[in-house]
Write a structure and sequence with these properties.
With 111 residues, this protein is mainly α. It has a domain of 77 residues. Helices cover 64% and strands 0% of the residues. Helix 2 packs antiparallel against helix 3 and helix 4 packs across helix 5.
Length: 111
């Protein structure tokens, strides 16, 4: 309670994660999946860049790159947009604003 955080461990097949998150959010708390999900969705995008360092061209089709990057940008990175918007509303700028602006510029340019 003091840290306002909790970890919930679910036995696979016992509970739908989406239902669990919805139940937690109905109580007034925020819930999200671990950062590992971001990494798993990002690895296919990073792998071709690393391969290019060794002279290999392994680019995925643009539609697949967009399909992988969009959830990372907006769903998993949405917390930066929310925090940044709150900061801008009170006339301040913080790291969330910087992250949202920077990643949005990169995403928009690549799309």
């Amino acid at each position: 309670m003091a840290t306002e955080q909790a970890s919930v461990h679910v036995v696979q097949g016992m509970t739908d994660v989406c239902q669990l998150i919805a139940a937690i959010e109905r109580t007034g708390y925020q819930a999200h999946l671990p950062v590992a999900l971001v990494a798993l969705r990002s690895i296919p995008l990073v792998f071709p860049m690393v391969a290019r360092l060794f002279g290999a061209e392994l680019a995925f089709p643009p539609w697949l790159q967009w399909l992988l990057a969009t959830p990372v940008q907006f769903w998993l990175g949405g917390r930066f947009y929310v925090a940044g918007l709150k900061a801008v509303r009170v006339g301040a700028a913080n790291m969330a604003v910087l992250v949202a602006l920077g990643t949005s510029a990169a995403y928009g340019l690549s799309v």
